[in-house]
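Quiz preparation item.
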């Protein structure tokens, strides 16, 4: 399945699948009475804000590509979105990236204040694991899913990548180090999404390996295109995206490779991601469409 000149429009069933995910996310945030109203509002505000739901789509379409059901994968898909939303809330805080806007809306701490934003992130992280424990079956699969998500969110991946990133590491050591930060900060959750899809579908080793190869290439392509969108935001200096990283002098893929080579690298990685899906046959068509979308997206 090579990357061709086809348009990058998302698979036809994307809207329907996203709606299913949105409805489930809404239901999971019907929290018990003991949850303070403002905290619940802050959690919902960030979780239900208009995100692309890329990670959730990877879970459900990853499961589907291995012969599993989208229904059985939906709890795990919601859990990944909860972890993602938590990481974005915390990343936007003044002590981290200090962003005022997220998903086109005031960042959680701008709307609710820093203390509630921190707690909303904490609440979403905990809710993610409860969602898997209560929604994924059988229990051994739920435990395996919790472990995968904990590793991806933990100190060797998301949190560690963020720590290295805010420490400003490692301008001296170039592309490998930049890739290492993003494998942990962005790639780990993308890979975990595919692993969760495989687990909920009870995929075999060959199917799981194909999904992981796809996920590794896609994760890096996603980060490069994210950096490229920031560069374009800088160039046009309009719209919601502003090239904050380059403004702050942070290391980025276009900064290191130059824009043209970064564009080529993202295309190569997308092609690699699509090739990795070959063993899964036509059931992986949604994942292939998603890879094209990641390459050609504009937000
Ligand atoms: C604070 C523990 C902690 C981690 C933060 C994920 C992360 C680490 C920071 C986010 C900063 C950032 C913009 C990273 C670039 C890639 C990325 C994760 C972009 C946002 O993901 P999208 O584009 O967002 O999938 P939506 O809103 O569509 O879900």
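Solution:
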């Amino acid at each position: 399945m090579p990357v061709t000149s086809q348009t990058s429009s998302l698979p036809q069933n994307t809207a329907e699948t996203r709606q299913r995910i949105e409805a489930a996310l809404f239901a999971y945030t019907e929290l018990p009475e003991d949850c303070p109203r403002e905290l619940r509002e802050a959690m919902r505000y960030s979780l239900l804000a208009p995100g692309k739901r890329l990670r959730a789509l990877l879970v459900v379409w990853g499961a589907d590509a291995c012969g599993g059901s989208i229904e059985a994968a939906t709890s795990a898909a919601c859990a990944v979105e909860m972890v993602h939303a938590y990481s974005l809330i915390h990343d936007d805080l003044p002590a981290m990236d200090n962003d005022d806007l997220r998903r086109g809306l005031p960042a959680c701490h701008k709307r609710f204040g820093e203390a509630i934003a921190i707690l909303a992130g904490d609440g979403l992280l905990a809710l993610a694991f409860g969602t898997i424990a209560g929604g994924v079956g059988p229990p051994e699969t739920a435990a395996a899913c919790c472990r995968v998500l904990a590793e991806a969110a933990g100190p060797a991946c998301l949190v560690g990548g963020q720590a290295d990133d805010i420490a400003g590491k490692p301008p001296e050591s170039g592309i490998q180090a930049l890739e290492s930060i993003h494998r942990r900060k962005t790639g780990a959750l993308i890979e975990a999404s595919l692993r969760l899809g495989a687990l909920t579908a009870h995929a075999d080793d060959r199917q799981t390996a194909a999904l992981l190869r796809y996920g590794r290439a896609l994760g890096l392509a996603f980060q490069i295109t994210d950096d490229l969108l920031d560069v374009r935001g800088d160039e046009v200096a309009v719209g919601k995206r502003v090239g904050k990283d380059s403004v702050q002098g942070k290391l980025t893929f276009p900064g290191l490779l130059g824009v043209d080579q970064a564009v080529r690298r993202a295309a190569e990685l997308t092609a690699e991601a699509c090739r990795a899906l070959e063993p899964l046959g036509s059931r992986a068509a949604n994942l292939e469409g998603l890879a094209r979308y990641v390459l050609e997206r504009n937000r």
